[in-house]
Amino acid sequence: MEKIMKRKVIFFFITIVSGILAACDQTVESENTEVSKDIINTCDEIQPCSIPERYQKMYEHVVFDTDLVIKNRKEPFVTTKATLHVVDKDKALFEYFSDVKKYEKMEDSLRDKKGRKVKITDYIAPDNTKLSITSPSSRVIYSNPRLAPYIFNSFWNEESSPDYNADKYSAKVDFSFASRKKAFANIKKSLSNVGIEIQSYKVYCLDYQTLQKEEHCVDMDGQIDNGAYKESWTEDDNCYYFFAGQEFEGIPVYHVYAEIFHEVSEAYSPVKVIYSKNGIEDLEVERVFDFSKETEQVSLAEFDKIAQTVVNKYHRILGDSTYKVVSAELYYMVDILNGKDSYHVFPVWILEIEENTPEEGMENKVQMVIDAVTAEEIYHE
């Protein structure tokens, strides 16, 4: 019961409050301009840094038995600038609502934190199919009620939640209506039609048998809602759930969902799509960026310096807790907290740390984000 209440609250947060959150980071740029392709080459000043694939060291409270993950080790590491991608409203309407012959249009205007006006336009069909576009922004939400609401009652992939059940679904099944590869290609083409480019993804293959078994519905008062259950589940309900993101220079881009959820988690991906034999059933684009082609090469700090930043932080904590750093992956971070229409982009290490407090019998996973060049921890407000 608590499980579905949490789902309803988060779904409400995404669909209703997201428009307000979207207003916090909008840019007024209405078109993408190609900047100079000249790369600022400072190779003579850059000292090469050899990053091992595994790092192992022991300190008083901190143990490193750490896989160092760099998706693309061939490219030089750089800094650049990014701007928030602005979706063309007319293109999005044509892409996702061209088959809808009749709909109601609703508009609302908000002010972002910089005092600029943003507009949220909702299109609602008689069958309750919905399309919401925030402009100027990259935020697009589309949902068809024939399947998506039932998926939200049967699937949960937030790993830190006790309601997590994504491990009950396969990631390697190809359904008869389309392979995973073909389905993603179709999604990628659809998003490209509105100017959104995605590269990496994780997919879950949601078979109808497991969906039916996992389905659980309650109302807003926490009571079992028998009327909300799907009347029947069949093979036609098989679908894929894609969680997709951006890459820059072959490295994943770190995404802070709605400027609130800082953890690296597929559940907080900037692009989420449910795809069935009918095509896209549900789509959420939260925030994506356009990256400048003008870059400046930088050198990563030796990982010993990164490790020392971790040790310095946890050395000050009193008690018998110990910390094991199990993985560190390189990302590019878009610094949305600073800047107006353009944001600094730079490499960061994101560390997964297991915290163990024996006297309390408590184990916990924590995350640290560290600037890969300066070795300074990045704090979120």
Automatic annotation (TrEMBL):
The keyword Signal applies. It comes from the Bacteria. Residues 1-22 form the signal peptide. PROSITE patterns: PROKAR_LIPOPROTEIN. Keywords: Signal. This is Uncharacterized protein. It comes from Anaerosacchariphilus polymeriproducens. The lineage of its organism: Bacteria, Bacillati, Bacillota, Clostridia, Lachnospirales.
